[in-house]
Each structure stands twice: as C-alpha cells, then as structure tokens.
Amino acid sequence: MKNLFNIDNPVWRFMGKLTDLAVLSGLWVLFSLPVVTVGPATAALYYVTLKLANDEEGYTVRSFFHGFRENLIPGIPLGIGAVFVGIFLGCDLYLYSRIEGQAGTLLLCVTVIFAAVYLMILFYLFPLLARCDTDWKHLLAMAFVMSVKNFGWTLLMIVTTVCFLAIGLFVLAPILIAAIGGAAYIHSKILNMLLKEYQLGLCSE
C-alpha cells in the first residue's frame, strides 16, 4: 500500500508524464494560433520532449517558455515558410488530381514526391532548431540528410503521428488531449538516438 503513494511508483511516473504531454499539447495549440508563431511553438515543444525522452525532468511550462523564447527569431520565418510550402503543395495535389490524362498523372506523381520529401524534412527541422545553434540553410540540409539516411525511422515517426490522430479522431477522442505531445515524445525518443550519432549538443539549457 505504501508503494501506491510513492511518487517514484511507475504508475505515478506514467501519469505525471502523461500530464506533461497533455500540457505541452495545449501550449503548442495556444502558441500556434497566431500561425506566424507555429515555428517557435513547435521548436519549444521538441525542446521539452527531447529532454523528457532523455529522462531529464524539469518544469514543463517553464521549459516550454524558455524554448519558445530561444527559438522565436529563427523559428518565425521557418514556420511561415513551412506553412506556405505545405499550402502550396496541398493546392497542387488537389489541382493535379483533377487533371485527366498523362500530363495530370505525371504532375501529380512529381508533386507527391515533393510532398513526401517536404513531410520527411518537417519531422526533423524543428527538433533540430530546438537542439542546434546554426543557420536555417544548415538546418534544412541536416534535416534532409537525416530524413533520407534514416528513412526507416522517419517512416515510423510519420506512422506514429497518423496513428495518434486516427485513434483520437475515430476510436478514443480523449487521446487527442495529449496526442501532439505524445507523438512528439515518441519522435524525441527516436531523435535522441539518432542525434547522438551526429554529436549534436543542446543549443541552450
């Protein structure tokens, strides 16, 4: 019975981490609402989950604010750029899917390839922004190389994100409360392992 109220109990640790992920999900949504701040908000999300995934416990809200401030200036243009590219590719996919004939099929296939590469880069770009102190050109280059070189892990990150959203939307709605933080946490587990190979240190503590 003593172990039940012990804060080191695995159940309580799990509940604590789940609460942290739910709080992170809420903070990410709140700070992404202006749209222009979606970049620094995503970097701040990964700033915290990369630490959580590495069992570096701390104050979740305070760490999120710290990560947001640290990545505000570089994160805004990266976030806006990512949003515009995503909208552009989405519109192209819709447009080319409605064009009949070989030309439409060819354009659609090319756009699908570009969209896939864009999505792969996106899963590394903001975690790298949270972790590395370098310019956006190097961030994009590193994100591209890492996403291609570790294609299997990249695919797993995409699949876990889709699964979180699908379960939340069609099976268990409450999971959506922690879906964003949960997906980022799983990504961070993978990313921490990959980043060690590149010996990338935290840009700030």
UniProtKB/TrEMBL annotation:
Signal peptide interval: none
Indicate the transmembrane segments per the record: 21-48, 72-96, 103-126, 153-186
Q: Which domain of life is it from?
A: Bacteria
Give a yes or no for keyword Transmembrane helix in this entry.
yes
Keyword Membrane belongs to the record = yes
Q: What's in the keyword line of the UniProt record?
A: Membrane, Transmembrane, Transmembrane helix
Record Pfam families: DUF624
| Name the UniProt record assigns to this protein | DUF624 domain-containing protein
Protein species of origin: Candidatus Blautia merdavium
